[in-house]
Each structure stands twice: as C-alpha cells, then as structure tokens.
Amino acid sequence: MGDLQVRPIRTLIAMTGSLSMIFLDATVVGVALPTIQADLGMTTAESAWVVNAFLVAFASTLAIGGRLGDRFGRLAVFRMAMILFAIGSLTCALASSGIALIIARAAQGIAAGTMQPASTAIVVGSTPAGRRGRAMATYFGVALLFLMAGPVVGGLIIELADWPWIFLLNLPVAGMALIMSINLGLHPSSAVRRRLDLVGIATLLTGLPALVLGLEWLGHPPTNAPWLPWLLGSLGVILTATCIIHSARHVSPLLEVKLIAPRVMLGQSVVLAFVSLIMSAQAVYGAIYLQEALAFTPLQAGLGSLPLLVPVILVIRSAGKMYDRLGSPRLVIVGLAVTLVGLCVEIGGILQQSYVILAIGMVLVGGGSTFASTPANTDVLSRAPDAQRGEVSGLVQTMRQLGSSIGIVICVLAIGWMVTAQTPDPLPDGKAGEDARRALEGDVTALQHLRIEDPPLAQTLVDARSEGMAAAFMVQGIACVAGLIVACVTLGRSEPERSQARPAHN
Questions:
Q1: Residue ranges of domains in the chain
Q2: How far apart are CA 247 and CA 245, in angstroms?
Q3: Is 235 exposed, middle or buried (CB count within 10 Å of its CB: 0-12, 13-18, 19+)?
Q4: Is the distance from CB of 159 to CB of 297 less than 8 angstroms?
Q5: Are 221 and 228 spatial neighbours (Cβ–Cβ below 8 Å)?
C-alpha cells in the first residue's frame, strides 16, 4: 500500500495549509509596502524587491524542489522546506534594514519553491483519478482564497499592529502543518535515484533572476550604466534558453521539459502562466490603485479587493466537479473569455475612477480566472507519470511563478512609461515638488500630503497614475487574449486523464 493511502483528509489539510501560507505570503506584503518603506528607510525601488525577491526566488527553485522531492522523498523534503520557511519568516519579522528584509524574503521564496512541488504531488498522488478534480479544487481553492485575502490581512495588520506581524503569522501555520505531516502515519516514499543536474541548476538559478531584474531596470536604468538592464535581460534570455536546450538533450536534466512537451500538457502549462500573470498583477496593483486614486486606507483597500475574492469561493468547487465530468478545454476557454470581459470592465472603472465599475470587473476576473486555472492545473498533473509528478509540478509552477514575476515587472514598466508621458513638466519646486516626484513613484503618503498642499496638482498626478494603471491592466488583457489563443489551438477536445484508477504511490 502506498503511504498516501493513509489518512487522505489529514494529508489534504496539511498540504493545503502549507500552500495557503505560501500564497498569502506572496500578496500580503503589497498593501503594507508604504509602511515598511518608511520604517526601514528604503527607496521605492528597494521596496519593490520586498515582493519581487520572493517571487523570483520562488520561480527559480520550483523545478529544483520537484527534483529533490522525487529523489529524497516528498514528505522529507516538504518537512525540511517547511522548517526553512518558518525560519525565513522569523528573519523577515526581525529585519532591521531593507537589505536584510530582501535577503530574508528571497530565503522564504527558496523554501516555498522547494515545498510546493512536493505538497502538490502528495495531494495528487493520494487521490483516485476520478476524484482529483475535487481534491485539487480544495487544495488550490483554499490557497487562492489566501492569495486574494493577502491585501485584506495586510491592511488589517497595519491598522491594528505593525508590519512584522505579517511574517510572524506564518509561524503557527507552519507549526501546525509540520505537526500534521509528522502524525499522518506515512512511511517514506520510494526515491528516484538520479544525479542532480548541476548545469541545469546553475543556468536556472542565474537565468531567471537576471531576466526579471533586467526587465525591471528598464524602467529605471542606472544613470552611470544605462546599458546594464539590456545586458542583464539578454544574459537572462541566453541562460534560460541554454537551460532549456541542455534539459532537452541531457539524460537526466533538472527540467524534464519532455514531460510537458505533449500538446495538451504544454498548452495547459502556458495557459496557467498567463492566468498567474493576471491574478498576481490584480492582487498587487488593485490594492495600490485603490489607495492612490480613490484615497482608500490600507484596510479599506484590502476590503475593497473582496470582489476579486468572493467569486473564487463560489466557483472553485464547481470548476473541479465539472472537470471530472467534462474535461478542461471548454472550461478553460469559457473562463478566459469571462476574464477578458472583466479586464475590459476594470479598465473602464480605472479610467472613470469608479469603484463600482471596478468591482464589477473584479467579480468577472476572479470567477473567470478560477474557472480556467483549476481544471488546467488538475489536468496537466493528472497526465504526468506518478514517479515524475513532482518534476511536472515543479515545471508547471515554475512557469506560473515566472508568469507572475514577469507580469508584475511588465506592469511596472507600463505604468512608468504612461505616467511619464502624462506628467506635467516641469513640476513645482519645494516640498510640493518633492511630494509630487515621490507620488509619481507610487508613494501614497506623499500623494496624501499633496492633496492638502496642492489639490489640483494632486488630481493631475492621480489622473496620470490612473492612465498608467489602465495600461497595466491592458497588459493583463493582452495576456488573456494570448491564453485564449493557446487554449483554442492546443487543447482541442481532450478529455480528463482517468487512466490511473488507484492512488499513486509517493
């Protein structure tokens, strides 16, 4: 009997708790960035890396985490990574400088990237093929709730306590999940003994960070080295391409790219990357827009993001059940179409600076994206061979987190370029001018000061930032259209994978 045939409900709870903690940590910081920036004396560019350091480290280590789980045992790797994540969270809470916080966030991302493939493979492997849709709907559905609840939780903590509690909250969750995993009565899984691909690890760990950092610096290149972003971006592309080519030729590569080479699996993976781009940008920039343009407090901005959250609750379970009956193609296409309509509505709400219109769009985006991502993720993992399901999970989640990271960076570039085009020149001298310059970089506190010092200028800057936000949401719309094209071309009339009648051994 496989180890995951024992106590499947407790297994699902433990794994869901770990994923929820990761997802919450990815978005809870966004609404608290102004407070963290002021408390630690960080620049705007440095504070942005409090979010991006986590995402980039997460994306860079997911495939490695999948391989480690398959080689050393998924439960063992899960427990080790959970402990490291808890230590990283404590280090974040105790950080006394911006650099220390960024390093600790990167450590959190590494631990999360090691943990998630193992937990996902454990859930899929413990569930019969005909019920995986519902199990994965619960697993990812609860985690998505925490992803979307991040701005609310962050705003509440800032109002009632202080920002270190954002990270300290991870400790009891990590402890509970760790204890539950120990008491599951599972014996170690059989390991797949293969050598680690050092070339693949080196090119992946350097290529993805270089690519994301180069893209981000395009908006604010160093004055004495304007060529550096292009160099980093090009180097990132070369190293990432080298990693993929090497993986396709290597006998035992880090990224077993052939595992997702089949048309349907590749299509599902690409769609998931586009959906992750959309949802991560929604979680970060929705809360920021509400504070900037509509003058919401952090807590109000978090609560104002609830229309994006509620549809997840309503749709996630139904999407899983419908996948078990219908397969993924129609669900994915319908979900992406609804998401695209919602993005168009959101853009209208941003330009009109109307929360009501924006909230209607949020409902459509939240429901549509969930309807698309749940069947796609379940289907691609169900098609994977059991012995390599951790690797497939790592590949898919690498694509998702890379989509999230690049999506946030591209949105930053779109906002910056549009704001620059819309900003009045020259800005006034003195304190009003300094506040205006900081407000253009996204400093909500400076914008609040400017509303008192120079209301007309403040409104001009709000309009410019709104135009920039609309451009960022247009980027998400383009990604949604691309996802629709990929889904229509690659998914066809494929049916859900039902070939494995028994739970997989892990």
A1: 3-185+254-490
A2: 5
A3: middle
A4: yes
A5: yes
Residue pointed to by tokens 């989640």: 397
Mutual orientation of helices 74-94 and 8-27 as an angle, nearest 10°?
A: 30
320-332 pLDDT, tens digit each: 677 766 667 888 8
Q: Please name the amino acid found at residue 4.
A: L
Query: What does the block give as tokens for 216?
Result: 């981000």
Find the radius of gyration of the CA atoms of the chain.
Answer: 22
pLDDT at 500 over 70: no
Residue 474: what residue type? M
SS (H, E, C) 237-304: HHHHHHHHHHHHHCCCCCCCHHHHCCHHHHHHHHHHHHHHHHHHHHHHHHHHHHHHCCCCCHHHHHHH
pTM for this entry: 0.78
425: region left, alpha or beta (phi > 0 left; psi from -120 to 50 alpha): beta
d(CA 199, CA 176): 37
CATH of domain 3-185+254-490: 1.20.1250.20
- Average pLDDT over every residue of 362-382: 87
Q: In 3-state terms, the chain is what percent helix, strand and coil (to 5)?
A: 80, 0, 20
Exposed/middle/buried for residue 448 (C-beta within 10 Å: 0-12, 13-18, 19+): middle
- CA 468 to CA 413: how far, in whole Å? 9
Q: Which is more confidently placed, 331 or 432?
A: 331
Read off the tokens for 295: 């003058």
